[in-house]
Amino acid sequence: MSTFLHNRAPSRPGKQLWWYGLAALPLFACTTAQAVPAYARQTGSACADCHAGSYGPGLTPYGMRFKMNGYTDTDGKGTKIPAAVQINGTRTVPATGKSSNLLSSADIYLAGRVSDQVGGFVKVSINNNGQDKFNTQLSDVDLRFVAKDLKLGGKEALVGVSVNNDPGFNDPINALPASMQNGPPTVSGSLLNPSSSNTLAHRVIGASVYALYDKNWYGELGTYNSLPTSMQYDLGYSLGGDPGKLSNTVYGRFAYMKELKRPHQFFSAGLVGLTTDRQLPRSGPSEHLTDLGYDVTYQFLGNRENIIQFAYVNIMERRRYATTPAGSLPGLFALPRGVVHDQTAQLTYVFKQTYGVIIAHMVSTGTHDIVRYVPYGQPETNSNSFTVFWTPFGKDDSFTSIANLRLAAEWFRFNKFNGSSTNIFGVPANGTGTNARDFNAFLLFASVAF
Amino acid sequence: MIESALRRCLRGTAMVGLFFGWMLASPFAHAGDASSGADVFKSECSECHSPKQGKNKKGPSLFGIVGRPAGTAPDYNYSDALKQARWTWTTDKLHWYLSQQAKKANPGTKMKYDGLDDSKQLDDLVTYLDTLH
C-alpha cells in the first residue's frame, strides 16, 4: 500500500530504531477504490447492488451475502471471463511541497466463480513509485470454498473456508480496517491495522473457517503465517516491511448482523481478535501481541435514493515486548508492556447511488513510552478525511451497469502526529520544525473499472 | 307497515353487503400506487430482479411478468420447482406468492424471499409489476 506520504515523509532526527513507531512512515490508505466489474458480469447485477456508492469497497447487505457466498452467485448464463481491470490516477496537492499528477496504479483482478462452491478474488497491483517506475505486487487474495443452503436446527446455515493474505480483508461487514482499507495513519498501530509499519497485509497467508447461522450470526476462526522474506520480495514487497516470523497465531471474529425491511436497514455489532508470537527481526526474541476489538455499523438503504452508512471500530492491542531497550539517558529503559488503540469512525451519505460524501475520523493512540516513541513518548496520531465522489455509472438505469468511473476529491487533515500538533519530530525550536498539519493534503482521484 | 320497513332495511343491508363483497373480490381490491410500488421494488426486489426486458440477474427479468407463464423468461435457468409450477403470473397469483416465503409458495425454488407482509406495499408492488410491459 503506497501513498503520497511515502514520498515526502521527512527523515527522523535522533536515534533510528527498528521497532514500533520510530521506523514507521506515516501511512494511510487514502480512500482506496476497489471495483470488480467481473462480478457484475457474472451475476447480471449492477455495481450499485453490492456497493452503496456504486463502487467498492463498502458493501450493501446484498454485497455482504455475495462475499459470504464465496463470490459464486451467478445469473446462470454460463461461464464469464473472471477478470477485470481498474486504472487509477491521482493528483496530490500537499500542504507543503510540490504537487504531483500520477497514473498511480493499474489493478488487475482475477475474480469470480469456479463452481457453485468455489470462488475467489485475486488482485495484482501495478503501482507507480512516484518517479514513473512501476512495481508489480500481489495485493489482496481471498479464495473460498463454501457450502450453502445448509439447515441447522431448522435454520438456514452457510459454512465456508477462506484462504487469504490479510486478516480481516475477508470480513463481510464494512468495519474492519483491512476490509474497508481505512486504517488510521499511525506510528504505533495494531496488527489489524494495515496502515501499521511491518503490516501483516499481503505478507502473510492464512485460512479461516467461517459460518453464518440463521442469516444473523457470523463466526470465523483462522490462523496465519508470514510468508518467507524471499517470497515477499518475489511478490513485489520490500524486505524492510517484513512482519517477522509469526507463531501460535489465531484470528477470531464474531458478529451479529440484522437486515431490516420496510424501510430497508442493516445493523451489526461484532468482536474481533488476533493473537500471535512474533519475532521481528526473525532471528530475534519473540514478543507477544494480542488484538481485541469491537465494531458497530448501521446502514439506511430505503429505496436507495438516500443511503446513509456509519461504521465505528475500536481495536486494542496488548503487547509484551521482546526487549526493553535503553533510552538516551542513563537508567532509562523502554517499558516491557504496552497497549495501543486504533479507532476509525466513518459516516457516508450517498444520493441516488451516484453522489456521495464520506467523513472519517481516525485516531491511533498508545501507552506513553519515552524510549519507544521519540520525541515525546506519545504515539498519538489524529486525522480526518473529507471526501466527495461522483460515480455516474454502475446502476441498472445508467449507461452501463457493469463498468464504472469514480471521480473523487479528498481533503486529508492531520491534527496530531507523534502525540503533538507542532514540531512533531522534536527538532530544536528554530522555526523549521515540522507540524502535523504539514502532512495535510488535497487529493483528486480518478478511477475507471471495466 | 313495520314489516315492510324491516324488509327495506334488510334489502338495504344486503345491498351494502353485496357492494363491499364485490369491492373486496374485484381487481380493485389489489389496486395500489404504481409509483410507490416502484420504491417497494427498489428496496425489495431490485437486487435480484431487473425491470428491463431481457436483463436477468440472480433472478429473471420481471419485464412482462404479469400474464407470463411461470418459469418461461427467456435465457434464465429456472429451478425444476418453478419450471414445473403450472401457473401463470396474474396479479392475484403474484399477490399470493409474494405474501409468503417463496420456499413455502414453491418448495424447491431458488428464490430466497421472506415475503411482504405489508398489504399496502404488496398492493403497490403488484400494481407496479403490472406496468412492466
TrEMBL record, chain A:
Q: Source organism's superkingdom?
A: Bacteria
* Signal peptide positions on this chain: 1-35
Q: What's in the keyword line of the UniProt record? A: Signal
Protein name, UniProt field: Cytochrome c
From TrEMBL, chain B:
Q: So which residues are the signal peptide here?
A: 1-31
Name the Gene3D superfamilies on file: Cytochrome c-like domain
User: Does the UniProt entry include the keyword Metal-binding?
Assistant: yes
Residue stretches making up the Cytochrome c domain: 32-133
UniProt keywords (A-Z) are: Electron transport, Heme, Iron, Metal-binding, Signal, Transport
This one is known as Cytochrome C2
Species of the source: Dyella acidisoli
Question: Which gene is the coding source of this polypeptide chain?
Answer: cycA_2
